[in-house]
Structure formats: C-alpha cells, structure tokens
Write a structure and sequence with these properties.
The protein has a single domain, classed as Jelly Rolls, CATH 2.60.120. The strands form three sheets. The protein has a four-stranded antiparallel beta sheet. About 5% of the residues lie in helices and about 45% in strands. Strand 9 and strand 10 form a beta hairpin. The protein is globular and about 30 Å long. The protein contains one helix and ten strands; from the N terminus they run E-E-E-E-E-E-H-E-E-E-E.
Length: about 100
C-alpha cells in the first residue's frame, strides 16, 4: 500500500507513479486547478489519453494497467494525489470520489 502527492513541472511528460509489477489498483485525483493529461506506460501528451480537468476529478485503475507507470503532461503545474489501497471512498453531493 502506498499513497502520495506529486506536483508536475510544466510542458513536459513526467512520471507520477512508477511502474510496480505487484500493484493491482490505484486511484489518482487532481488536487489543483491545472488540467493534466494521463498516459499509462508511455509518454503523456496534450489532447491524447485521459484528461483530469477539474479539482476532484479522479481515475481508478485496476489490473494489468495499474502495474504500468502513469505519466502526466500539463501546461501548468498541477498537483495530483494517489492511493493504492482499495475500499475507501468518500464524497459530498452527487460526485463520489475516493480518497484516503
């Protein structure tokens, strides 16, 4: 189990979470107002892959895809947080998002 945060540098693909052959799950959440594109096991680039656009946006990754490194690309310096332990979800209003 692991959790952490990462603030990306601007305008270059950067590793957010390293590859781990034993990991089966993680949740990654955008914790700032700067959008970020995600890629799994390859460089992230603008307008390709998954976009986390607003504070609180999150992605849950399971199985073989969760074992790959996740990389981010942003034009600014977004902060992301992650958790690799399953089973914890909280939220307010209609949007439920996992945190720890």
């Amino acid at each position: 189990m692991a959790s952490g945060t990462k603030t990306l540098g601007a305008t270059a693909t950067e590793e957010i979470i390293a590859a781990d052959e034993n990991r089966d799950f993680y949740v990654l959440q955008l914790q700032s107002e700067e959008p970020v594109y995600l890629a799994f096991g390859e460089d992230a680039v603008t307008a390709k892959g998954i976009l986390l656009n607003r504070i609180g946006d999150w992605v849950e990754v399971r199985g073989a895809k969760a074992r790959l490194a996740v990389n981010g690309y942003a034009a600014a310096t977004p902060t992301l947080g992650w958790e690799t332990f399953e089973g914890i979800k909280i939220g307010t209003g209609p949007n439920v998002f996992p945190t720890s």
